[in-house]
Every structure is written in structure tokens, then in C-alpha cells.
Design brief:
With 356 residues, the protein is an alpha/beta fold. It is built from 10 helices and 13 strands. α1 crosses α3 and α4 crosses α5. The longest helix is centred in the middle third of the chain and has 19 residues. The relative contact order is 0.18.
């Protein structure tokens, strides 16, 4: 196994902007559903380049804890579809999925009840079933025996978990700003954090219910705080930010029933993230056998350098490991402007995918 450490400088690129604008025109979209082994329907969007590599490993993109797939990866504005740019640049089929409880996928009956009536929904052990269903479809439609999984934030934890259980399915694995139990200290999710139980700081608060509601305004403060300039528009396109908020609300048919409008997000991701942030690993990376790319933004508020180090340390059977650091980049790097890390992330992925 070889480990490569790469630091990508944030250099402006006009070409990246031009490619992003053209990508949507060169990609054909289609919406599908996959059914899990326990009968849950999972929403999937396929992005097919007009000229694609038949038999090449397809790429599956998985969102994070709050905002589902399309809002995260396929916004209908220039610079807002990381999925389209990735499909166009790689020449591969790209699939954007929603985990159960999110977006166009089935929601459990608990979502029709008050959140406090049920425990956190869509835990990681269930989401790996969702990934399995999408992997099956992606393999069949692409003609490839393996897939590339890319997960952002909690999505990185989920795809890593899946790859540890089904290493034969995953030729390439990408985690973007993901937790991995590398430390017992985390300001937002660890012991003693706002989501911990005051009586038992190493446990999740019992007040965390099945789901939470998020309005549009709640999606920007963390992003704003991590951008190191006063004018946030210099870092991210305001059109992309507005589309992100709009798509998040549109992902839930119940969002307009709240005032202000708010979408529901399962809290299972928060429970699992709490354990990871507390140093309790949900899976062991030693069983992953494909190529691994671990990407972390310098200004990420979710993952920690210790998570990157721990993952690389444990992944002893990976064919190769690349660790990419994106200086000054934010947690939302794939939605930021190309010169703020998005272009460098696409470059890193393009280089990684050619690993045989």
C-alpha cells in the first residue's frame, strides 16, 4: 500500500468556470428508484455524459446529514452541479442518491409523528442498505463490476462504512470532510457539546428525536462563518447559495406547512456523528481494499485532522491512499467558487479515478 499526501494550492482558474457552465449541456439526466432489501424506495438521479466510457466505474455521490442529494450535488444553476461537472470531466456515469428519510426517498412512519415520539431515524446501519441498492443499479447500468463511492461529511462516513462491509464492490472510495472517530474531542458533537446529555456527557442527549426541521436561513451561518472574508459573495456565488436553500426546501413536500417553511432531516446522522466525534468508530477501515482518496478542507468545521490520520492508519489493505488537503477551503468546497477549492477538488478526483 502506498500513501500520497497532496496539498493543492487555491489558484484561480477561468477554464474551470467555463467547463462548469458547459457541463450541464453535455449531460443527460434521468431519475430512477432503487429498492432496498427491506423494501425502502431510494431516489436516484443518473447523469450520463453524451460521450461516456462504456464499462467504466460509475460514481455514486452521497449527501451529508441535513440536505439531500440534488440540493448538495445537482443544483440547476451555473457552478451548482458538482455532479454534472464530474460526469463531464470524467466521462463516467454519475449517480446522486438520497438516503432513506431524505428528499425523494421513502420516509418512515416516524416522520408523520412528532419528532420526540421516536428515536433518531436513518441510522448508518440502515443507510448502508440504501447504498447497496444504488450500487446494484449503478453496476448494472454501467457494465462495471465495481463503483466509485464519494460521500460528503456524514455521507463520507456512510460510504466508508459500506466499503468496509462490501470491499469487493468498491474500486475507488472518496471521503470529503468526513468524521472517523479520530479524536474524542469535537466542539459541535463530542462529549459535553450542545447535543450531549448533560447528565451523561459521553451520551447523546435524550431530547434528540426522530428528525429536525430546518428553514432556509439555518443553512448559511456555518458556511458564512468558515469563509474568511467579509463579502461572502467573493467566495461563493450568491445564485448557488440561493439555489441550495431553495432546493433543500423543495426536497420535502411538507416544508410549506411550517412557518417559515422548513424541511425535515433525520437525526440518525447526528447520533452516528456524535459517536464518531467521541472517538467511537462505527466501522474499521482495515477491511477496505480499493483505492482511497481522503479529502479535507482546511476550514472544515465537521471533520478533524485526526480523522484523516486515523483513517489512513487503519486502511492497511487499501490498494493505495491519497490524502488531499485543500488550503483555506470550506466544508462546502464543492459549492464554492472554482478558485476557492472547487476546481482543485475536481482536479484531484480526475487524477484519482485513473488509478487502475
Amino acid at each position: 500500500m502506498r500513501i500520497a499526501f497532496i496539498v493543492l494550492a487555491l489558484v484561480g482558474s477561468m477554464m474551470a468556470t467555463i467547463q462548469s457552465a458547459a457541463a450541464s449541456e453535455d449531460v443527460v439526466r434521468g431519475d430512477l428508484h432503487a429498492t432496498t432489501e427491506d423494501g425502502v424506495r431510494i431516489f436516484v438521479r443518473e447523469l450520463r455524459p453524451r460521450s461516456w466510457l462504456d464499462g467504466a466505474e460509475p460514481i455514486i455521490l452521497l449527501h451529508g446529514a441535513r440536505v439531500p442529494g440534488l440540493a448538495s450535488f445537482d443544483l440547476p444553476v451555473t457552478g451548482g452541479s458538482f455532479a454534472a461537472d464530474l460526469a463531464q470531466r470524467s466521462g463516467r456515469l454519475v449517480y446522486v442518491m438520497d438516503a432513506r428519510g431524505y428528499g425523494g426517498s421513502d420516509r418512515a412512519a416516524a416522520f408523520e409523528q412528532p419528532p420526540e415520539a421516536n428515536p433518531p431515524q436513518s441510522r448508518a446501519y440502515l443507510v448502508v442498505r440504501d447504498i447497496a441498492a444504488v450500487v446494484s443499479i449503478a453496476k448494472e447500468r454501467s457494465g462495471s463490476r465495481t463503483v466509485c463511492l464519494l460521500g460528503w461529511a456524514t455521507g463520507g462516513m456512510w460510504v466508508g462504512y459500506y466499503a468496509s462491509l462490501h470491499p469487493e464492490d468498491v474500486g475507488h472510495l472518496v471521503t470529503l470532510n468526513a468524521l472517523y472517530g479520530g479524536s474524542a474531542q469535537h466542539s459541535q458533537f463530542g462529549p459535553g457539546s450542545p447535543v450531549s446529555d448533560p447528565a451523561h456527557p459521553d451520551r447523546l442527549s435524550p431530547t434528540i428525536g426522530a428528525y429536525a426541521r430546518y428553514d432556509a436561513a439555518s443553512l448559511l451561518p456555518g458556511w458564512d462563518k468558515s469563509i474568511p472574508v467579509a463579502d461572502k459573495d467573493q467566495w461563493r456565488d450568491p445564485v448557488v447559495a440561493a439555489a441550495y436553500q431553495r432546493a433543500a426546501l423543495e426536497s420535502d413536500p411538507e416544508s410549506q406547512k411550517s412557518e417559515p417553511p422548513a424541511f425535515r432531516a433525520p437525526m440518525g446522522a447526528i447520533e452516528d456523528s456524535f459517536y464518531q466525534a467521541s472517538g467511537r468508530r462505527l466501522f474499521d477501515a482495515s477491511t477496505i481494499t480499493g483505492h482511497i482518496l481522503v479529502v479535507r478542507s482546511e476550514r472544515d468545521f465537521w471533520s478533524r485532522p485526526e480523522d484523516v490520520q486515523a483513517f489512513a492508519h487503519d486502511a492497511v489493505h487499501a490498494r493505495s491512499i491519497r490524502i488531499v488537503a485543500l488550503p483555506e477551503a470550506t466544508h462546502f468546497v464543492h459549492l464554492d467558487r472554482p478558485e476557492r477549492g472547487r476546481g482543485q477538488l475536481l482536479d484531484a478526483l480526475q487524477g484519482f479515478l485513473v488509478e487502475p
